[in-house]
Specification:
Helices cover 27% and strands 24% of the residues. The chain is built from seven helices and eleven strands. Strand 1 (2-6), helix 1 (14-23) and strand 2 (28-34) form a beta-alpha-beta unit. The mean pLDDT is 96. The chain binds manganese (II) ion.
Length: 255
C-alpha cells in the first residue's frame, strides 16, 4: 500500500521513525510531517503565512518532506500537492504521550488522522502513553497489524481510529479494547515566572489526567494496560441536545 505518515512531534521524532521502520519493508511509505514540534495545535491550518517544504534529509532514512505547517496542513498538502498519487491510508504518530479524553480536541496527532478521514482516506492516529524515553517498536507493530487488518474492521468512510498503546513491556499489555472517548482532562496548572526584563509570563504545565470514565472509555482502559481504539469523527453535533432543541420554540428578535 501507499501510506502517508505524519505526526505532530516533528519529522525527526523517534515515534515517526519507529512507525516508518515497521511499515517501510512491506509498503510504499511517504513522510510529510511538521519541521518542528506542533503538539497541541489541534486542527489548525495555516492561512496567513506561506507553507514551505524541505525534502527530508538522506540521513533520516525517510522519503518525503518536512513542512513549516501544522499536522492538518501536512495531510492536505501531501494529498493535493506533494505525493505522486494520493495515499491509500494516513497514519499519524506515533505520538509521545497518550491522546485520550478531552485531549483529542487539542491533539495535532489526532487532527492529522481526522483530516485524512475528511479527505475520504482510511486514517489512524497512534500514541504511546508516556512522555519518558521509551521503545516505540511494539506500538509500531500494533500499527502495522492494524494496517493489515483494516479492511476487516469495518471502519466507515469519514471515521478515523485513535489508537493508544500503554507504555508497558509487550508481554504485560492485556489486549485491545474498543472504547469511547472519556472525559479525562488535563489538570490545569501554570508556572508563573518573570522574564529578564521583569515582565510576568506563564507556561502551561498541566500534565496529569483526571480519572473520569469507566473501563469502556479510553483513559481508564489504557491505564488498565489495554491498547485502546476509539473511532473518531469530525461531526461535533450533540444529537440528543439537537432533538431537545428542536422541540423548543425560539423566536428571533423583531426585525
Ligand atoms: Mn505530540
Amino acid at each position: 500500500m501507499r501510506l502517508l505518515l505524519t505526526n505532530d512531534d516533528g519529522a525527526y521524532a523517534p515515534g515517526l521513525k519507529a512507525l516508518h521502520q515497521a511499515l517501510a519493508k512491506e509498503h510504499e511509505v511517504w513522510v510529510v510531517a511538521p519541521e518542528t514540534e506542533q503538539s497541541a495545535v489541534g486542527h489548525a491550518i495555516t492561512l496567513a503565512d506561506p507553507i514551505r517544504v524541505h525534502p527530508l534529509t538522506q540521513e533520516s532514512g525517510l522519503k518525503g518532506w518536512a513542512v513549516t505547517g501544522t499536522p492538518a496542513d501536512c495531510v492536505k498538502l501531501a494529498v493535493h500537492e506533494l505525493l505522486p498519487s494520493p495515499p491509500q491510508m494516513v497514519l499519524s504518530g506515533i505520538n509521545q504521550g497518550a491522546n485520550v479524553g478531552v485531549n483529542l480536541l487539542y491533539s495535532g496527532t489526532v487532527s492529522a488522522a481526522t483530516e485524512g478521514a475528511i479527505l475520504g482516506l482510511p486514517a489512524m492516529s497512534l500514541s504511546l502513553a508516556t512522555h519518558e524515553p521509551f521503545d516505540f517498536s511494539y506500538a509500531a507493530r500494533v500499527a502495522a497489524r492494524l494496517v493489515r487488518e483494516w479492511d476487516g474492521l469495518g471502519v466507515p468512510p469519514g471515521v478515523s481510529l485513535n489508537v493508544n498503546v500503554p507504555a508497558l513491556p509487550p508481554q504485560r499489555i492485556k489486549g485491545v479494547r474498543f472504547t469511547r472517548q472519556s472525559n479525562a482532562r488535563l489538570h490545569e496548572s501554570f508556572l508563573r515566572r518573570q522574564d529578564p526584563r521583569g515582565h510576568t509570563y506563564y507556561w502551561q504545565a498541566g500534565e496529569k489526567m483526571g480519572t473520569e470514565g469507566d473501563g469502556h472509555t479510553d483513559y481508564p482502559a489504557l491505564r488498565d494496560g489495554y491498547v485502546t481504539i476509539t473511532p473518531v469523527e469530525h461531526d461535533l453535533t450533540h444529537r440528543r441536545a439537537l432533538e431537545t432543541l428542536r422541540t423548543r420554540a425560539l423566536e428571533l428578535p423583531p426585525a
